[in-house]
TrEMBL record:
Keyword Transferase set for record: yes
Protein name: Thiamine phosphate synthase/TenI domain-containing protein
Alphabetical list of Gene3D superfamilies matching this protein: 3.40.1190.20, Aldolase class I
Matching SUPFAM superfamilies: Ribokinase-like, Thiamin phosphate synthase
Pathway participation: Cofactor biosynthesis; thiamine diphosphate biosynthesis; thiamine phosphate from 4-amino-2-methyl-5-diphosphomethylpyrimidine and 4-methyl-5-(2-phosphoethyl)-thiazole: step 1/1; Cofactor biosynthesis; thiamine diphosphate biosynthesis; 4-methyl-5-(2-phosphoethyl)-thiazole from 5-(2-hydroxyethyl)-4-methylthiazole: step 1/1
Family the UniProt entry places it in: In the N-terminal section; belongs to the thiamine-phosphate synthase family.
Length: 518
């Protein structure tokens, strides 16, 4: 098989260590995986003697060759030659690519591990057939991985390879399994290049039934993840927004969607009241084990990272996986993301652990989400802005493009983008900054609305921002509001009033929207 015709979609890397293989027979496990759909196999064995390696390679080849599945040997060009297999996979510390090619000839399949952009560019320019890009996620299978670029890092490498017109095949490796395979392929893809496959060790080698595990993965990687199904990015004018938003609010009131809040202990009561006023049915559950049952009810999830703990993070990840599995909208509110190392770690873990349809935060929080270095946030407050208006617009847009979601950066002017459409919203009132939980409960509002407005999540989020901020403006104007204390109940009343007006077909409240297309 010519190297260019190889199917890299489900790349199995073997592992004979007891922690992964157990007491099973390597050849039988690989045979099952090939039957299940593995499209290419690499023999990775760091301990066996050369003679044994050649014997194992020949045995594996008897299984892979009749199935038309190429077999490669990790590191060992001599073993590849002696066993007559289709090629090798070399790491950065092994024999270099050019020498390997000279030894094995033009027909051999030669892949190279690349843990950074530089390594990827060099290997691709040298002419490698494919690159193993990783580690996508931290993995106990290979603890000494040099870096963990994540899906965002892989996407950057793919973009640069395409820019340089380097037509090399690519597979992602590291921590990939049936739970995240679709998301890895979806979120790592750039507009110009996507991964040709996923490479797995434990997801197949350690599976109770390797054939079924391979079958499962083979099926999953052919279809987009559930949360990627409904993306509609039609252009929106201000007048479209003013017409559509009240209709969305009326629909929310009619459907009363479940809004699952995993939120901090400061705002739980306030968030539940806001959700009710908006027209949702709130449930405040920080127990991840309840999430699968709740996700099945068709609502949405908001994960608010305030007052976080390690236990809570595990619950957040369990819940996120449950909503991702059914395509239920998940909103991330990375409260205080830039304030402490623990919270920065929390942001990384949550973003690596699942997909968020919408991420909402103030400037420092969104900068942290984007991976910016040196963000210093004073507590959970928004603090003074470090970025110009143009920089904020660029940040929401590029982060949304990268994450393939909606990014909302709140501030005196809010910026919201889905990577293609970007809006500035300058509604709201300064009293929102004088009460606790105003950012958090905006997250709740948006979550409730996108539970219903699933097709156009940017429009759903925009509806949430406008309802929330216009309610604040209306409340602040009321004669009974004397300050932050009296503002809170008036604000809840105005959310309720806006909902009732929308239900009655009166959308005139949305005329107050100050939205600019940017
Ligand atoms: N190479 P699992 S990560 C062999 O980053 C290997 O280059 C990696 O194992 C890299 O699928 C890795 O069990 C191990 O997470 C992948």
């Amino acid at each position: 098989m010519a190297p260019k015709d190889v199917d890299y979609s489900l790349y199995l890397v073997t592992d004979n260590t007891p922690a992964i293989l157990g007491d099973r027979d390597l050849v039988s496990v690989v045979q099952a995986a090939v039957q299940g759909g593995a499209t290419i196999v690499q023999l990775r064995d760091k301990t066996s003697d050369t003679g044994d390696l050649v014997r194992i390679a020949k045995e594996l080849h008897q299984v892979t060759k009749p199935a038309g599945v190429p077999l490669l040997i990790n590191d060992r060009v001599d073993v590849a030659l002696a066993s007559g297999v289709e090629g090798v996979h070399i790491g950065q510390d092994d024999l270099d690519y050019k020498t390997t090619r000279k030894i094995l000839g033009p027909e051999a399949i030669i892949g190279v591990t690349a843990n950074s952009l530089e390594e990827a560019l060099i290997a691709a320019r040298d002419g490698a057939d494919y690159l193993g890009l990783g580690a996508v996620f931290a993995t106990p299978t290979k603890e000494n991985t040099k870096s963990i670029p994540g899906t965002a890092g892989i996407q950057h490498i793919l973009t640069r390879l395409a820019e340089e017109k380097l037509d090399v095949k690519t597979v992602g490796i590291g921590g990939i399994n049936a739970k995240n395979a679709q998301r890895v392929l979806y979120q790592s893809a750039s507009a110009t290049k996507k991964l040709d496959g996923i490479a797995v060790v434990s997801a197949i080698m350690a599976a109770e039934n390797p054939e079924e595990a391979a079958e499962d993965l083979e099926m999953l990687i052919k279809i987009p993840p559930p949360f990627a199904k409904s993306i509609a990015k039609s252009a929106l004018t201000l007048s479209d927004i003013q017409t559509k938003v009240p209709a969305i609010i009326a629909k929310v009131a009619a459907k009363k969607p479940l809004c699952h809040n995993m939120t901090n202990l400061v705002v739980q009561n306030f968030a539940a009241n806001v959700a009710l006023a908006v027209g949702c049915s709130p449930i405040m559950s920080n127990n991840g084990l309840e999430a699968a049952d709740l996700a099945a009810l068709g609502g949405s999830l908001v994960i608010n990272m305030g007052t976080t703990t390690t236990d809570m993070r595990a619950n957040h990840l369990t819940a996120l996986a449950a909503y991702n599995a059914v395509g239920g909208p998940a909103i991330f509110d990375p409260v205080g993301a830039g304030a402490t190392q623990e919270r920065r770690n929390g942001v990384k873990a949550l973003m690596a652990g699942g997909y968020f349809d919408i991420i909402k935060g103030n400037e420092n929080e969104i900068r942290t989400v984007s991976g910016a270095a040196g963000v210093k946030q004073h507590g959970v407050d928004s603090g003074t802005s470090q970025l110009s208006r143009e920089e904020r617009i660029a940040l929401v847009k590029t982060t949304a493009q990268r994450e393939k979601n909606v990014i909302l950066m709140t501030g005196a002017t809010d910026f919201i983008s889905d990577g293609e459409r970007t809006f500035a919203v300058s509604n709201g009132h300064e009293l929102l900054g004088e009460i606790t939980g105003s950012g958090c409960t905006l997250g709740t509002t948006i979550a409730g609305i996108v539970a219903v407005e699933r097709k156009d999540k940017l429009l759903g989020a925009l509806a949430g921002v406008l309802m929330y901020e216009i309610a604040a403006e209306r409340a602040a104007k009321r004669g009974d509001v004397k300050g932050p204390g009296t503002f809170v109940p008036a604000f809840i009343d105005e959310l309720y009033n806006i909902r009732q007006e929308s239900v009655a077909g009166d959308g005139s409240w949305a005329q107050a929207a100050k939205v600019e297309i940017v």
